[in-house]
Specification:
heterodimer; A: about 350 residues; B: mainly alpha; 15 helices; 8 strands; membrane (chain A)
Chain lengths: ~350, ~450
């Protein structure tokens, strides 16, 4: 195994963690908007209670990915930075608005809370849709090189069925994962009404997200045959991912003493589902970072820099882990926080 | 307009906005900490209240500091892909370590704000200390990259490729310590003066010796004392920074001082503007021999003038004005805190005269202005280089185009963010007036 392989695995791990945390974060904003006008449900409160402390931490991951990418693969940064100018700028603009207004909504008056929730809800599905466009861009076909200058073909990008399949997948996954987490969260908070609401949403969106994943694979077949071919080497992983989906989905229907469904089991199975599928996708994508020009070997950083970075990662892991555990216990386990009446 | 200028304007605008929030994000936690300590020492509840209210304001400011910082981090790769390619190879460490500091800050900020009622007093202080530590560490680490741009180290260039990279030598590049020190102490100074400004403004609107007036008076004195201490440190460190320019970036010093001819016993030009055609600083007060002495502690020091370099490698000459404004404001603030302290503690006068109050009110905005001037001076003074004598800014800029449109979009978002910051702060503090909280 080469150093570049370890580095890309680390980045893949960061991307996966961010993808899960961010879909939940964005989805929570969306649900909080949907249930804003319902007076008889606490679903919005539950969403906000999860969202308030977690967005800042989630937000750090996106910077961590960008930094890891240009540190480990400066060659890829040059290409990606150049072609992602427009989509990347749109993403950070929306993120900035969303983050700032999330903070403001705690200090602002009731009248403004509506519009703030609206902003967080709308950006909640726009941002994932834009973020995922990075993937089809790396499949090749959307970058044109003239006189050594790389340029993103925006019109090709936005007329490509594959891009829309990816977007639909991103949005449905966002809603699916977040409704699952929130159903688990409201279950732990012993809020049956909110639990029922989010359970119903998960049952509704789950099959849609799976169908979108299937559609996405079909569009890859026509638009990026090289990737499709390699992906077929990982069929067992894809089957495994479908099995875990089935387990997770069925877990929502298992009867219990107090109600129906085991949301914790569902949540964990579905995360494993995404883990397996993204492992297959990521492995098939290698060695290319951007097809066909940039591979993990051509874009790799200086070996001395790589080793110094790895040392900081190890040190930071030991310093930060207690902080993350403390955070987890305060906001995701502490009954005093979960069961409070007002958000 | 050419794309390079628009790209520089866009990134400069991002930094110009971010630096206001980031500076206060470093400066305010210290004030909170000092207020907490004063409370422990004096048991005067006013100090506890100050810590509490400043933390509220700080949390709102952080709500913009974090997203603008995120923008800056991502925009670097989007606008300057050529530069970031070198950064990734040579000077990736500070960015990477900054991420850890950022995590620390975000985790404990959330804990401090959303779990405040469930934290023990000790954990409260630990959390706010970690937030302050994370904020300062972020500032220092990002400044590290800025220092590297001015005094690159830790690599060799063979056939246009960066080889023999030593990432830690790049990290501890010659100007790192002094530059990071300058950023830190000036941020701590600014946080203190902003507090002093607000306190002075509230006092001027109060009549008589009310309870509220006394509260603000204590805050004002705290701001002046801490601001005073750190403005002196900033000045001492600033002198050091200038001597480093003499040593490592002589053309930046020459542009800052408007010196065209290489000479010993060089004069110091204060004020005025640099005239490129006539190659002199007009309308300036000249202090003979002073520049030579300041540059290296001796009148015999030979200071290089701009004539040593081809004209297309000169930094823009208006940096002389920025440099003067920064130093001028710094000196003024130092003087102001000394006058305020003397008036109250040594002359034992109970009240400040009105003109002095207005000067205090101006202190915070002036300090922020000086920070902005300082950064613009530091970054435009390095031009045309993005990495001094290694890479020109025009070689680093994106080739994508369309930056003009992005400039407008970002401008709109920054305006929204800045206006909403003010509205949210005003709304919050109007809803929770100090008079009510004092009675509790």
């Amino acid at each position: 195994m080469s150093e570049a392989f370890y580095a890309i695995t680390l980045i893949w791990g960061l991307v996966f963690i961010y993808a899960v945390m961010a879909t939940i974060d964005f989805g929570a904003g969306f649900w909080s908007m949907i249930y804003l006008n319902r007076n008889n449900t606490k679903a919005t409160n539950i969403a906000n209670r999860y969202l308030s402390p977690s967005w800042e931490v989630t937000n750090v991951f996106i910077v961590a990915i960008v930094v890891a990418l240009f540190s480990f693969f400066p060659g890829a940064t040059f290409t990606l930075g150049t072609v992602l100018l427009i989509p990347g700028s749109l993403i950070i603009l929306l993120l900035a608005l969303r983050s700032a207004f999330l903070v403001f909504s705690h200090s602002a008056s009731e009248n403004y809370k509506r519009i703030l929730t609206l902003i967080s809800g709308i950006t909640g599905f726009l941002i994932p849709a834009l973020l995922i466009c990075v993937l089809p861009i790396t499949h090749g076909g959307f970058i044109k090189t003239t006189n050594g200058v790389e340029r993103l073909l925006l019109s090709e990008l936005f007329t490509s069925p594959s891009v829309y399949a990816f977007m639909a997948f991103a949005i449905s996954s966002t809603l699916f994962l977040s409704s699952l987490l929130l159903s688990d969260y409201s279950n732990v908070s012993a809020d049956q009404e909110a639990y029922q609401t989010y359970r119903r949403d998960a049952i509704l969106v789950g099959p849609i997200s799976l169908a979108m994943a299937g559609l996405l694979v079909l569009t890859i077949r026509t638009e990026a045959p090289w990737l499709y071919e390699r992906l077929m080497d990982y069929v067992p992983w894809l089957i495994g991912s479908m099995i875990t989906f089935a387990i997770g989905y069925l877990a929502l229907f298992i009867p219990r003493k107090t109600g129906v469904g085991i949301p914790r089991l569902a949540m964990i199975s579905i995360v494993i589902q995404y883990l397996l599928a993204s492992y297959a996708y990521g492995s098939a994508h290698l060695p290319y970072i951007v097809y066909p020009n940039v591979t993990i070997e051509t874009g790799f950083t200086d070996p001395a820099t790589f080793r110094a970075l790895i040392v900081t990662y190890i040190v930071a892991f030991f310093i930060l882990t207690p902080g993350f555990i403390y955070f987890w216990r305060l906001f995701l386990k502490d009954k005093r926080y979960l069961k409070q009446n007002e958000s | 307009m050419d794309e390079l200028v628009i790209a520089r304007s866009l990134f400069g605008m991002t930094m110009g906005v971010h630096i206001i929030y980031a500076t206060l994000g470093v400066g305010l936690p210290l004030m909170v900490l000092v207020a907490e300590l004063m409370y422990q020492k004096t048991k005067d509840k006013d100090y506890a209240l100050m810590a509490n209210r400043w933390t509220k304001g700080f949390a709102v400011l952080l709500g913009v500091a974090i997203p603008t910082g995120t923008i800056a981090g991502v925009q670097l790769s989007l606008l300057w892909p050529g530069f970031m390619e070198v950064v990734g190879r040579v000077i990736a460490l500070p960015f990477q370590i900054e991420i850890y500091a950022f995590f620390l800050e975000a985790l404990f900020m959330s804990i401090y704000v959303y779990a405040a009622d469930r934290l023990s007093p000790l954990m409260r202080i630990v959390s706010v200390t970690l937030v302050a530590f994370g904020a300062s560490a972020s500032a220092i680490l990002i400044t590290n990259v800025h220092a590297f741009e001015g005094t690159p180290a830790g690599f060799e260039i063979v056939d246009g490729k960066f080889v023999n990279v030593d990432p830690w030598e790049a990290f501890f590049n010659p100007s790192f310590i002094v530059t990071a020190g300058h950023v830190t102490v000036s941020a701590l100074m600014t946080g203190a003066f902003v507090i002093a400004s607000i306190a002075a403004y509230k006092m001027i609107r109060q009549r008589g010796n009310t309870r509220e007036y006394k509260f603000h008076h204590k805050a004002l004195m705290m701001g002046l004392v801490i601001g005073g201490i750190f403005s002196i440190l900033t000045a001492l460190n600033g002198h050091e920074s200038a001597q480093q320019l003499y040593q490592y970036q002589p053309e930046k010093l020459a542009a800052a001082e408007g010196l065209f001819e290489t000479q010993t016993h060089a004069p110091l030009a204060i004020g005025g503007y640099t005239d490129k055609e006539e190659r002199e600083v007009k309308w300036a007060i000249e202090v003979p021999w002073a520049l030579s002495f300041l540059a290296d502690d001796s009148f015999d020091t030979e200071v290089l003038g701009l004539e040593e370099w081809p004209e297309d490698e000169w930094p823009p000459l208006f940096v002389h004005t920025l440099f003067n404004a920064m130093v001028g404001i710094g000196s003024l603030l130092m003087l102001l805190s000394i006058v305020g302290f003397t008036w109250y503690k040594i002359l034992k006068r109970k009240e400040f005269p009105r003109w002095l109050m207005w000067a205090f009110i101006a202190a915070g905005p002036l300090a922020i202005t000086a920070i902005e001037f300082g950064w613009i001076f530091a970054c435009t003074g390095r031009q045309p280089w993005v990495i001094y004598h290694v890479m020109k800014t025009e070689e680093a800029v994106t080739t994508s185009g369309n930056i003009g449109l992005l400039f407008v979009l970002f401008l709109i978002v920054y305006i929204i963010l800045m206006i909403s910051t003010v509205l949210v702060l005003r709304y919050y503090f109007n809803r929770n007036p100090i008079s009510e909280e004092l009675d509790q």
